[in-house]
Design a protein that fits this description.
Number of domains: 2
Order of helices and strands: HEEEHEHEEEHEEHEHEE
Shape: elongated
Pfam families: 1-cysPrx_C, AhpC-TSA
Subcellular location: Cytoplasm
Number of strands: 12
CATH architecture of the largest domain: 3-Layer(aba) Sandwich
EC number: 1.11.1.24
Largest sheet: 7 strands, mixed
CATH class of the largest domain: Alpha Beta
Strand content: 15-25%
Subunit structure: Homodecamer. Pentamer of dimers that assemble into a ring structure.
GO molecular function, one term: thioredoxin peroxidase activity
Helix content: 25-40%
């Protein structure tokens, strides 16, 4: 794609921001009509795009998402897929996937909705069209909270399949940080220590030093960096 076309594409594409409300849209899906994000009020949503149906990397991703569907549901999270393909293409591809076995995943059934975005309206609203192609979405992932607010955005190129352990880690981490009012350190995984928000006044610093004397619960490296044992709740 030449630079002129890239410049034109950039002018047409919007990029939603973390901390803003997910753009609303109505769409046709493999599970019927959808009004997003209103249909998912009270639930977390992972909205993700893929370049095209009947393609190899996308097929492995959908098999993986399908195999993990119940794990995401257990975290009050719905999955919603999208590509710039027709509804009939989606239906045919999902039916084919049910006959495949790969990497320990045997004949998975895709139970979550897949949006048909032939007019590219959703893809453009969510910045899913980038420099690789102006007709195929990249592998975008949007984590949207129960209030319809975008909490995290990931973009992958067409050639690189997503890391689903990381997608699940991000979801659990977002929910953990929101529920407990904590931050999470580099390479955090469930069960590891979390970070207590830093003090903002001298008085709070003194309180933090006193609190951190309980080394069974806290590990204070400095006044602004205090770790807390995860209680697992």
């Amino acid at each position: 794609m030449n630079q002129e076309r890239l410049d034109v594409l950039q002018e047409k594409v919007n990029f939603p921001l973390i901390g803003t409300r997910a753009p609303e849209f109505e769409a046709v899906t493999t599970k019927g009509p959808m009004h997003f994000p209103n249909d998912f009020e009270g639930k977390w949503v992972i909205l993700f795009s893929h370049p095209a149906d009947f393609t190899p990397v996308c097929t492995t991703e959908f098999m993986t998402f399908a195999s993990m569907h119940d794990e995401f549901l257990a975290h009050n999270t719905e999955l919603v897929g999208l590509s710039i393909d027709s509804l009939h293409s989606h239906l045919g591809w999902l039916e084919a996937i049910e006959n495949y076995t790969w990497d320990g995943i045997e004949k998975p059934k895709v139970k979550f909705p897949l949006i048909a975005d032939i007019r590219m309206e959703v893809a453009k609203a969510y910045g899913m069209l980038q420099g690789e192609s102006d007709t195929h979405a990249v592998r975008a992932v949007f984590f949207i909270d129960p209030q319809g607010i975008i909490k995290t955005i990931l973009y992958y190129p067409a050639s690189l399949g997503r890391n689903f352990a990381e997608i699940k880690r991000v979801l659990i981490g977002l929910q953990k940080a929101e529920k407990d009012g904590v931050a999470l350190p580099a390479n955090w995984e469930p069960g590891k220590d979390v970070i207590v928000p830093p003090p903002t006044t001298r008085e709070e610093v003194e309180q933090r030093v006193e609190l951190a004397k309980d080394t069974s619960k806290y590990n204070m490296l400095d006044w602004f960096l205090t770790f807390k044992k995860d209680d697992g709740k």
